[in-house]
Amino acid sequence: MITVHLKYEIDPDKLADFEEYGRRWVKLVDRFGGNHHGYFLPSEGDSDIAYALFSFGSLAEYEQYRTASFTDPECMAAFELARTTGCIRRYERRFLKPLDTGK
């Protein structure tokens, strides 16, 4: 399994736009066979940092999703929402794997 950790720097004045962006991607990742663990929005502390976590069974499955997302109409609409609203200033992507506990 591979888990993608996204850290977003968002425009706090466009939080509603970012929330809509997140709602779309939760459904899209799940539709493409992943397991979205949610978006985590600013509360206390930094007002411009948000996170998202989602998993796929393997890096290859993630790559298939990534490739398909560039031509899928719903994914393209989500990308366009972020671009036109400017709700995302920048983001970082990390790939994580769970600890094998030997169980």
Automatic annotation (TrEMBL):
It comes from the Bacteria. Residues 7-100 form the NIPSNAP domain. InterPro entries: Dimeric_a/b-barrel, NIPSNAP. Pfam families: NIPSNAP. This is NIPSNAP domain-containing protein. The lineage of its organism: Bacteria, Bacillati, Actinomycetota, Actinomycetes, Kitasatosporales.
